[in-house]
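Figure 2 data, in text form.
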Amino acid sequence: MIGVTIGDIQGIGPEVVGKALASLEKSKREEIIVIGYLPVMFKYVNEKELEGVNFIDTGEGEESFSGLLAIERAIEIAKAGKIKGICTAPVNKARVSNIVPFVGHTEFLRDRFGVDRVEMIFLSRYFNIILATRHLPVKEISKEITLSRMREVIDTSWEFTQVIKKELPIGICGLNPHAGETGKIGREEVDVIIPAVQEARDRGVNIIGPLPADTIFRKGEHFSIIITMYHDQGLPVLKRIDPNCVNLTWGLPVMRTSPPHGTAYDIAGKGIADHNPMKEAILSLFRFSVL
């Protein structure tokens, strides 16, 4: 059984969740609990289309409408062992932050589950990405590219590779243009990334790099996963070539996935949102929840 939260009710979450569920086989729907303020979802689908789905309605009020209460309920039932994974539709970070401190789903789930570290991985048909840093201002990124951080993200990438049983090397990006050009355009590669890569190789990890970001993605299919140094280094490329890529939170007691888009207020309520990214996020959660 998995849980699916419908997100901010003023965004496209209720629409894409409802349509994604309606497109699934009944046997799959019977393994899903949908959580959130449900009346808005039924503007886009009827109950017959969602036959077999289980529901938890979070009621009215800003905590419910913002999508926060659905996340909290999903965490509760996950801790109780009732679901093996959570798929989250988008919320508006600023709106939720008016209620509780909230950087994003990833960090919120980490803190609520009480784990020390989680990783943000993106799955796609072409290649997979893991982020060495996530929601940071660009001027702060270099300070976070440390040897200990590189060890963490390389180890997680190797663990991921073993789980998905993909016998391809890990690829790792440089931080600077041209991967630093042996220290001529920044020292992070020479001082941090290359030593971390060599250390990993000495432990038997199959890893290649650091490679320039403007090169590595052209060969993405040759890697089990690519380590990118910051959020906007790899995600614009991935989201452009695969709009149905999936965000996977690695390191929680349960798996968590989400689609790659936000609330899309500009098209919400018009019935034109594409539900396929949400559908792929749900199906990916089923696949990873049984690994």
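Caption note: The chain has a mean pLDDT of 95.
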